[in-house]
């Protein structure tokens, strides 16, 4: 995530898994810095997500969507509707990270097409460079394979951030995972 506008502090985001324009608007009005519209888990479909993203102000830097995979078509629609970041789950290789960058960034960095869906989403010139700066491309690492290839994933040109899956507990590694809470009993 791009935190430079927050002095290096992480933003407070509401993870939204239910389709509701009101929740999006109220979360931002209540002081959340942004929302993550979840199309991977929950009940939000593509049409609802696009509408929810349009409920956020154009200048909301932390209006993200978590997609269910790397298909560029829904990613493009979410970005054209105003998503300022795309989180892609289960990234396990540099090739998958590259595919994500291709879908989220304009030429020069990626292969995103330019469409008239929502004009002037990104202030600045040239427009495609402003869009590439404004959109966060986030790879979610949540599997053993992803961890094993983390260095090559992290160094993918155009990738802005890594999201460590909240349910990754070292499954299949035979290693005990240390939890931050003493009462936590994570499986090994």
Word description of this protein:
- This protein is an alpha/beta fold.
- It has a single domain, classed as Phosphoenolpyruvate-binding domains (TIM Barrel).
- The chain has seven helices and six strands; from the N terminus they run E-H-E-H-E-H-E-H-H-E-H-H-E.
- It has helices spanning 21-29, 46-54, 72-80, 94-104, 127-134, 144-148, 150-154; strands at 13-16, 34-38, 62-66, 85-88, 136-141, 161-164.
- The chain has a six-stranded parallel beta sheet.
- Strand 2, helix 2 and strand 3 form a beta-alpha-beta unit.
- The protein is globular, with a radius of gyration of 17 Å.
Question: Could you give the topology of this structure?
Answer:
Blueprint: E1 13-16, H1 21-29, E2 34-38, H2 46-54, E3 62-66, H3 72-80, E4 85-88, H4 94-104, H5 127-134, E5 136-141, H6 144-148, H7 150-154, E6 161-164
């Amino acid at each position: 995530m791009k935190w430079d506008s927050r002095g290096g502090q992480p933003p407070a985001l509401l993870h939204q898994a239910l389709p509701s324009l009101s929740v999006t608007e109220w979360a931002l009005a209540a002081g959340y810095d942004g929302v993550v519209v979840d199309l991977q888990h929950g009940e939000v479909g593509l049409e609802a997500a696009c509408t929810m993203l349009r409920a956020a102000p154009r200048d909301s830097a932390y209006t993200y969507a978590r997609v269910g995979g790397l298909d560029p078509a829904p990613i493009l629609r979410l970005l054209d509707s105003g998503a300022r970041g795309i989180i892609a789950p289960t990234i396990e290789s540099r090739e998958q990270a590259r595919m994500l960058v291709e879908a989220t960034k304009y030429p020069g960095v990626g292969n995103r097409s330019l469409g008239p869906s929502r004009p002037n989403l990104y202030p600045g010139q040239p427009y495609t460079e402003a869009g590439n700066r404004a959109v966060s491309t986030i790879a979610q690492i949540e599997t053993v394979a992803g961890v094993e290839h983390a260095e090559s994933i992290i160094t993918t040109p155009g990738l802005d951030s890594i999201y460590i899956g909240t349910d990754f507990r070292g499954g299949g590694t035979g290693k005990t995972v240390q939890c931050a809470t003493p009462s936590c009993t994570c499986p090994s």
